[in-house]
Amino acid sequence: MPITRRADGYTVGALPRIKLRVFLDRSRRTMDIPPEVPVDSVLEDVLSRAVAFVPCVSAALYLDNPITKQSDRRENDLVVIASIGVGAYLTLPGSSEPAYTGIPGKIYLETVPFLGVDEATQAAVIGVPVAIEKSVCGALILRKRPGEAPFTERELKLIAIFADYMASVLMNALDAEKLRDMAHRDPLTGLYNDRFFHGQLTRDIIDATSTGQPLCLVFMDLDHFKEVNDTHGHMAGSMVLKEIGYLMRHTLAMPGAVLARYGGDEFVMIFAQQELADVVAACERLRETIEKNVFLASEGPYGPPLRIANIITCSMGVASFHDHVRKRYTPEQNKDVFLKVADKAMYAAKDAGRNRVVTGQREPGEENERY
To answer: Which of 116, 164, 110, 107 lies closest to 139, judged by CA?
Structure first.
């Protein structure tokens, strides 16, 4: 992830925007915000202002994950989405800790500021809740070196005032990201559209080629979906697709996951920096969830509850970029083959009886073969 070392000795960084997306799925106000505002840069700037406002050795912004959030807030994890620090005092973006333990969790659960000492490190700590749309969803934590003078009540009041400013800036950034995001979304399912998918897959292939990090691609097609349209009408079919999008978002809440509707009842998923075995396991969870789900269990635009069960399943094909694709000269050539491997695996799942996950095979042929 991008980390910037500054001349004053601080290092500042935030989660890359692809991973920040899951933290942006919150209720937002409608605001006239320029859609070009980069949320990761905004977060880094906010923390830079924090350490100038109240001098300290490090600061970190923790947020819960709105997609995996539990009704019992103690079961949530708090993730560092941006941080700044001197040397080893930097808390790495992406690290997390359970809400039921630690000072960030105490602030998050009790929704009150903290002024005191971290017993584990004997370092002075100050922290305040972070609220978006009047809901506490995280904490801003500032720390000093062990042995340094403690924070004061005056500094606590200052950082509380600053937290209100930071929340406003953060909401503006989230609104800007939302405006940008809307152009990339399928309006029915809320998943990404195929245009965004193709651009993101090309970017991820370039990254995977240069870094060697794992990259997986999944094709998914619904089984027996035509029966829903034929029996209950296309409005019911559309609402089933909308529920599929919901199930995908909540079952596949993995860092770096890009979920898209490819067209009709076909879906595609990109899993950057995820190992093949983990992706296959996630796909199996989704397959089981769809198989057991009762669709259209409530009244809707299609009429009374339909409670469609034991009909809709899915077939999925999974491909690994490094395991299944021989590298070519251009990312677009690699993408074409990557898509073919995943698509072929999906059709193999169909041919094998449907309602299953099939892993792709390494493409055959000579190394200099072109597609």
So the answer is: 107
- Catalytic option among 265, 323, 336, 351: 265
Q: Which one-letter amino acid corresponds to residue 135?
A: S
Residue with tokens 């860092």: 255
- How far apart are alpha carbons 332 and 201 in whole angstroms? 9
Please give the C-alpha separations between residue 117 and each of 103, 120, 126, 371, in angstroms, as whole numbers.
Answer: 10, 9, 8, 62
Tell me the pTM.
Answer: 0.57
pLDDT per position as a tens digit, 325-352? 988 878 899 999 999 999 999 999 999 9
Q: How far apart are alpha carbons 319 and 219 in whole angstroms? A: 9
SS (H, E, C) 54-94: CCCCEEEEEEECCCCCCCCHHHCEEEEEEEEEEHHHCCCCC
Alpha helices for the chain (secondary structure H): 17-20, 39-53, 102-110, 153-182, 194-211, 225-232, 234-251, 276-292, 321-324, 331-351
265 is catalytic: yes
The answer to whether 101 and 131 have CB atoms below 8 angstroms apart is: no
Of the candidates 316, 303, 306, the one whose C-alpha atom is nearest the C-alpha of residue 346 is 316
Residue with tokens 């990259």: 215
Residues 60 and 78: their CA atoms lie apart, in Å, by 11
What b/e sequence results for 63-90 when a residue is b if at least 16 CB atoms lie within 10 Å of its CB, and e otherwise?
bbbbeeeeeebeebbbbbbbbbbbeebb
User: DSSP secondary-structure letter at 130?
Assistant: E
Q: Using the 8-state DSSP alphabet, how is residue 116 labeled? A: E
* CA 304 to each of CA 189, 229, 241, 290, 300: distance values in angstroms, whole numbers, following the listed order: 21, 16, 18, 21, 7
CA dist 361 → 265, 290, 324, 358 (Å): 24, 25, 6, 9
Q: Which residues of the chain have pLDDT under 70?
A: 1-2, 17-18, 21-22, 24-39, 170, 173-174, 176-181, 365-371
* Chain CA centroid to CA 225, Å: 28
In this structure, what token pair is assigned to residue 349? 């799942």
Angle, helices 153-182 vs 39-53, to 10°: value is 170
DSSP 303: B
